Amino acid sequence: MKHTLAASILLFLGLACSTNTVKAESHVQVQLISSHSEIETGKPFQLGIHIEMQDHWHTYWENPGSSGIPTDVAWTEVSGLDIGALQFPLPKKYVDDAGFVTYGYDDKTTLIANAVYTGSAKEIDIKGVVSWLECKGICLPGEQKVQLVLKTGQQTESKEAALFKETQKMIPVKLTPAGPFEVETSLNLTEDVWNAKVDLKPKEGVTFKPLRFFPGYQKDSEMTSVTMEGNRLLIEYSPWAEVAKKDLFLYGVLEVEINGSKELYRIPVFPQELPKEKAGGISMETPAEPEATTTKVPPSMLYILLLAFFGGLILNLMPCVLPVLSLKVFSIINEAGESAARRIQFGWMYTLGIMVSFAILAGFLIAAKAAGESLGIGFQFQNPGFVIFMIALIFVMALSFVGVFEIEAPQSQKIQGLAQKRGLLGAFYQGGLMTILSTPCTAPGLGAAYGWAVTAESWQILVIFELIAFGLATPYLVLCYSPGLLKFLPKPGAWMDYFKVVMGFLLFATVIWLMNTLMNLSGSTAIIGTLTLLLFLACAAWIHGKTFFHGPKAKGLIVNVLLIICGVWLGLFKLFDVSKPFDAINSYKNDLRLKFLSESQSQHGGGQQFIEELEAMKTTAEKIAWIPYSPKVLEHFRNKNKLVFLDFTAEWCATCKVNEKLVVDTKGVRSAFAKNNVVTMKVDYTDEDPKITEFIHSFKRAGVPIYLFYPGEGEPILLPETITTGLVLDGLNEAKEKM
Which of 733, 637, 646, 719 is closest to 681 using CA atoms? Predict the structure, then answer.
């Protein structure tokens, strides 16, 4: 038992390791820009980190709030170049389900740094590494290298100059004695709360109205409330230390309306004056620790621990967990006749499986943080190969539940003893399975717990994950310990066979959910490949069910192995290449973009930049560079005396897909196209298009597929509907002769 359990844990570790082979796709794009395309020695200019976020994923402000990490950049040193600190524009305020407040951006933003160059080079190569935390339910650390080459000479504004000017309006300035108002501050410190009072005193003739206040970065406390009473701010902080530091510094950003226009100022909260600035903004250096400072666990940490446990508890009701929870309900019913001690053994083995699995996930997150990798909760579900494995596993389990095949152990005392051991180990495995399927779900409160964990210390990450695990396991553990609750479960009987089938259909529903995940990751090609694999697995399962007890086992086993090998080869390497899981969907997205531009160019004309992009697309021996069809694009390439290959196809055309996979998109044809600089153009007839219908009829054909070559401005060379590699190459040679 001990050796088997150890092997099982190692097997799960190996599976988890395999999920780290594909890096998480970022939902954030960053670009290094400059206010000037040419800079003059000794004159200041500005650099910008322009950030664009997809689908309301957000990054963080200089003070992220309750959780999060501010965006940062590590510059590569350039002799003579001085770059100031990043300046952050005014952020948005976010409040999650648990009441945590964070500050950041969820669409576009630009962070600015002042710079000056005093060297003598004719151009400078500015490089850096931008790091950030992107969050939306879960949080993923991100990192990207940026680079910009600037010439030196006469100071010349860049095309982004207007963006810098607009962004500068959203960046707060330090309040100085010459400013339109003054501040008087006081701070009352107690063990549990810090109360600050800030009086805003407008100067004579100034119309003044405070609008919003954002707390500045302060690692030893968190602002819990701010109240505006006329021109007075009452600010409450929750301290994370029993004794305040001697060099305590609190500040914030105030948005005010002055003489009818909005302005932004950095103002002190305590002490009365702001510290000196570095180039570009307030210094964010952490003050030195005082000699005698007693710290306690932050109150928010205790709150996070409660959220972690109750979030794990609620996970049992989430859509990605509930279908698999049916497995445990079924096992409880099966085990209802067992002794109390036996039920408790099952309960703790199930709990151990979950807690070990969550510890492994925590270990991966800790290791990834140490290595600077972009990894988040549920990262294994960002790997299409892992998702396909889970689809296949749950599909086979569902087939077993609905009666396609079943494994029954022979009845003997020795085998029964092994079955009992296998039952305990099965409980451990089911705990691991529950963990794997629960990670992409976020129950109420878990978003805050996960986000906090990403930025926490290693021991805190482990504690949070284990509390989530224990919360997830608690309902089943309670049932195992409470015979009174088990009495409400029905007694074993014939109805269990029907219940088992219902559970099987719930597992099929889980397969549908995972298919949707796979579709978003790798597109329809991955779905076709996976469905092909499932077809072969279903055949193998049916043969296994027919031959295991009543037929030739050896022959059945051989057939099953061959079916599985064929399914994997055809589904995961021919129809869909699992070794390059993102190629298909990235190609599809690019095809959509090109198709849109092509249609726009056909309707509105122009588009020289688009034409140049198409001309730069070249087919290689590894990949065909398909160009979307439009009459004007075809005319352009024919007028330039290019050899053009047209593939009329549709998603619903089976013959088209077979020809593409087995003939057109093969190494021999690709190499010939690449060698002869053939322009490959795809005419998509999936949706009804009268113009394409008319184009098809011009070749005396009724529908797709159609394959033809245009030898420049010459007459087209039409190929048969059913093609071979030889026919395509012969058509290519004929077209070359007519060029």
Answer: 646
